[in-house]
Design brief:
heterodimer, A: mainly alpha, 3 helical TM bundles of succinate and fumarate reductases, B: mainly alpha
Chain lengths: 136, 129
Amino acid sequence: MASSDPTSPLPAARPLSPHLGIYRFTLTMAMSIAHRITGAGLYVGALLLAWFLLAASMDASAFSYFSGFIQSIFGRLILFGFTWALFQHLLGGVRHLIMDAGYGMDEPEREQMALATLIGGLALTLVVWAIVVAAG
Amino acid sequence: MNESDKSLRSALGRARYLGSARRGSQDAWLTHVSAAALVLLASGFVLMLLTLLNKDYNGVRAELSHPFPAILTLLFAIVATFHMQLGMRSIILDYLHGHAREWALVANICFASAVGLACVYAVLRIGFV
């Protein structure tokens, strides 16, 4: 092959390392990516937890400022997203613990587990928010 | 004189259990252990938060002053911020290089510690002040 000649100015015709764009979309891949993204989201969202606890530790006006935010549409939207990210990441973590123990990596199980984290995360989010809405 | 000349350990013994990255398995192990703990702690914390629905300032403080909710919140905050520091650390090590990586690692420790300590401070203040 002429292009493998080190004196040739043309790039060698060897195969390149595969990059993100060439992979076929799969559910297990999507759930793996979702695990990292929800983890990063929870990292930032931890500020909400600190704000809630600090507000409760200060005076009533600091707490009403926090509860005013969290009961606004925007605040509820963020808290809903935080709830989903928490459950998605929690179930994804359990899935990774199971796979790291050496189970569930074959054909039906791995797809079922990936689907279970997706459905379970959404279901737990809806259950928690049904309780929130029912409580008014 | 390099290490292989003065060490009594065999070449295989020195290489064994070191992957291509040579280190980092401790981070992965601690991530797993804290993750397992957080399955219980996060579930318990969410259940406790649901009992706080419709409670006002005094009601929330009264609840968080009890030992069980306070200790659950402390454990959750400490283990969660420890776990998220490890997770963000692995994201940084995957995507950033050079000086950006160094600064991001420092910022990560500062942010996670600040959030964790703020939570601990607040819970203790509610209980003791």
